[in-house]
Amino acid sequence: MKLTHIIPLVSLATAVYAAPQAFDFKDPKGVNNAVFQLDAPLESINGSANGISGTVSFDPENPAATTGKIVVTVDSMTVPNPMQNGHLHSDKWLDAAKYPEITFETKSLANVKTNGDVTTADVTGTFSLHGVSNEITVPVKFTYLKDKLSARVPNLKGDLLVIRANFAINREDFNINKGQYEDKVSPTINLSLAIAGSSVTK
């Protein structure tokens, strides 16, 4: 085969390999979770949510081009105390009936660094909660695991994208009881996201 014939084939193979993949974060195992913690002078509130979905487009050859949206359902958020749990979902606090979802949609990535399968970046996007949308920047770690889906979900072949993020928001920025109950419910909400998305091979 002539060199002139080989070059286009190599270019095509490179393009196919470098194409971004869509990773689905609707976890069939129900393991994906977001943890929230509020540490006020009188009480510390700790809870989690497992109603997570969304899609992230990730190219291991070009992580800086990552886009996507992660969704957390408010009614999947729970705390150990049943009374507090009821308050959390009520119209006095997060109002799950009126605002059923919390979302983060990516706008851009900065300070992107890749070492092997791991990429770290400062991800700027739109965080929407309680009917309010604010732009925030979050430090995120992406771990791309090629051909590892079957190790997590038997009988499925494909790749995994694991996302870890820890950051804080202020409930007052989202019109949640501004200036009220601060002795028991901290204005600062610390969030920790631990999720894995799959890209299934057909």
Fold and architecture overview:
The protein has about 200 residues and is mainly β. The chain has a single domain, classed as Lipid/polyisoprenoid-binding, YceI-like (Lipocalin). Helix content is about 15%, strand content about 50%. It contains three helices and eleven strands. Strand 8 and strand 9 form a beta hairpin.
What fold name goes in the CATH topology slot?
Lipocalin
Could you describe the largest sheet, including whether it forms a barrel?
A: 11 strands, antiparallel
**Which structural class matches the secondary elements?**
mainly beta
Distance between the ends: 31 Å
Quantity of strands, as a count: 11
Lateral arrangement of strands in the main beta sheet? 1-4-5-7-8-9-10-11-2-3-6
Topology, element by element:
Blueprint: H1 3-18, E1 21-24, E2 33-39, E3 44-49, E4 52-58, E5 67-73, E6 77-78, H2 82-89, E7 101-115, E8 118-129, E9 132-145, H3 149-152, E10 158-170, E11 188-200
Antiparallel strand pairs: 1-4, 2-3, 2-11, 3-6, 4-5, 5-7, 7-8, 8-9, 9-10, 10-11
Produce a short descriptive summary.
The protein has 202 residues and is mainly beta. The protein contains three helices and eleven strands.
